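Section handout, structural biology tutorial.
Before the tutorial, make sure you can parse a SMILES string by hand: atoms, branches in parentheses, ring closures as digits. In the record below the ligand is flavin mononucleotide, and the chain has 203 residues. In the tutorial you will relate the predicted structure tokens back to the input. Do not try to memorize them.
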Amino acid sequence: MSIDLPAAPAFGAPIELHPTPEVLRFLATRRSTSAVTLTGPAPTEDEIEALIALAARVPDHGKLSPWRFVILDARAKAAFAQRLEDLANARGDARAVAKLAKLKTPPLGIAVISSPRAHEIPEWEQQLSAGAVCTTLLYAAQALGYGANWITDWYAYDSEAKAILGASAGEQVAGFIFLGTAKEPPLERERPDPKALTTRWVG
Ligand SMILES: Cc1cc2nc3c(=O)[nH]c(=O)nc-3n(C[C@H](O)[C@H](O)[C@H](O)COP(=O)(O)O)c2cc1C
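Predicted structure of the complex:
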């Protein structure tokens, strides 16, 4: 799919607010696609650039950009998976090896690294912004017609795995967003009842 995006607004340009029913319809049926059902084609280089540019527009208290992206194209992802498999095998951890299927199968991954700055803005808020980046990547990928899945398996938390990825000690992996073309449409999952999660503060 070709990308037809408006240019990023110039600094200080007024942003028109208007209803976008298509976005509402999209959100009403948005769905992750299981990583192990993702195949090629993957987003193109232009599309990856657009996905990252869209994701980088998330709310960000203090304008700190407390996150960064690591693109894992098919070749890099295979090499990363091999390093993780070697690590898991050295530990005799067959379960960890099996978990790598979600990393190995999709044709593309984008790791979102939460990279909090030393700043008066609480670290929690900076991490929330990284979560928003992950969500926006999912939305934008699906809007481009791709399937995407937010995954944090053991290799998002393991210190040796994080070092292989290139995350520093103060950083955390907010998520691996795996992307590709859905081999089969995802099926709707159970959803919570929003009413059961909502109260009104009455003082
Ligand atoms: C922070 C985070 C980490 C997740 N990690 C995993 C994971 O490691 N493995 C997995 O199967 N699903 C994981 N999920 C769940 C899926 O990404 C997805 O949200 C879930 O399948 C529900 O689908 P939906 O996005 O269509 O609601 C994670 C979700 C979040 C928010």
